[in-house]
Write a structure and sequence with these properties.
This protein has about 280 residues and is an all-beta fold. The chain has a domain of about 100 residues. It has one helix and 20 strands. The strands form five sheets. A four-stranded antiparallel β-sheet has the order 1-2-3-4, with no helix packed on it. Strands 5-6-7-8 form a four-stranded antiparallel β-sheet, with no helix packed on it. Strands 9-10-11-12 form a four-stranded antiparallel β-sheet, with no helix packed on it. This is EML-like first beta-propeller domain-containing protein. It comes from Spumella elongata. GO terms for molecular function: microtubule binding.
């Protein structure tokens, strides 16, 4: 069954076995094999915001179907082997203990695993299609939000009551936007979830949205700003205290108070591709 390869390798669907193949049933199995020891390079094409750190400073990044945990001090690597297809996204909890990764295929699964041992904690149920563009854990790591690559760019909220993720389950999902979201980020829980009850925010090509959750229902709220302002494409965003800050392709930072645009700051000459807020805001 090669159905999981069709989205990334279209030619696989037309492959057929040769008609003149020799009988191979009498060939003895191999008595030796290969063991992965080191991977050179980083997979940056097709992934965004997927280079992270664990709790002891090791670098975590995608390389083909493996997630590499690089220990700079010893020039050594560990690998998460759980995926069978090329990776689409990697995220790590704020405390660096738990990672989430997802592959690019027809029906991807999100794998939750331990960053110290590279052992699987849980594989979440299939939901998204084609891939997962971005994910993020909440500050207390009890929630995870993910964005799919399907036509609706579906947004899903997952939860672990204990924070260990052995009990991880789906809370709910909804349509994201007609344009692809490029980031999703939680508000800080100790800041009253954005001051107006927003749990997280997302943004991307020509849009910014703020999200509230009630039971299994996830509802989007559109931003409020002057019609003279041209938002354009937003590449990144993060919560800063009770506010949210988005970075655009034109180098502007948009500061949102609730869902209202508070001010626009000319921060860079070119696009703002990544943004991070420290604990002190």
């Amino acid at each position: 069954d090669m159905s999981h390869l069709v989205s990334t390798r279209p030619w696989a669907a037309s492959m057929v076995p040769p008609t003149n193949a020799k009988e191979l049933s009498n060939i003895a199995p191999l008595t030796s094999g290969l063991k992965l020891r080191h991977i050179l390079g980083l997979q940056s094409y097709g992934t965004r915001l997927s280079v992270r750190f664990n709790n002891i400073g090791d670098i975590i990044y995608p390389t083909s179907k493996y997630v590499c945990v690089y220990q700079k001090k010893y020039n050594a690597q560990m690998f998460y082997h759980g995926h069978t297809s090329e990776l689409a996204c990697v995220s790590v909890s704020r405390d660096g203990l738990i990672a989430a990764s997802a592959e690019k295929c027809a029906r991807p699964c999100i794998h939750i695993w331990d960053t110290g041992t590279c052992e699987t904690v849980i594989v979440l149920p299939q939901l998204h299609r084609k891939g997962v563009t971005c994910m993020q854990f909440s500050q207390d790591r009890k929630m995870l939000v993910s964005v799919g690559q399907d036509d609706d760019f579906s947004i899903a909220l997952w939860m672990s009551a204990t924070g260990s993720w052995a009990d991880g389950k789906l809370v709910g999902w909804t349509k994201g936007d007609v344009n692809p979201p490029l980031f999703v980020s939680f508000y800080e829980q100790n800041q009253g979830m954005g001051g107006e009850g927003y749990l997280f925010a997302s943004g991307g090509r020509y849009h910014q949205k703020f999200w509230k959750v009630s039971g299994k229902s996830i509802n989007a709220y559109y931003p409020e700003y002057d019609k003279k302002v041209k938002i354009g494409t937003l590449l990144c965003g993060t919560a800063v205290g009770g506010r949210f800050v988005s970075g655009s392709t034109k180098g502007h930072l948009y500061v949102w108070s609730g869902r209202r645009l508070d001010r626009m700051i000319r921060a860079h000459e070119l696009g703002v591709s990544a943004i991070w807020a420290g604990p002190s805001g």
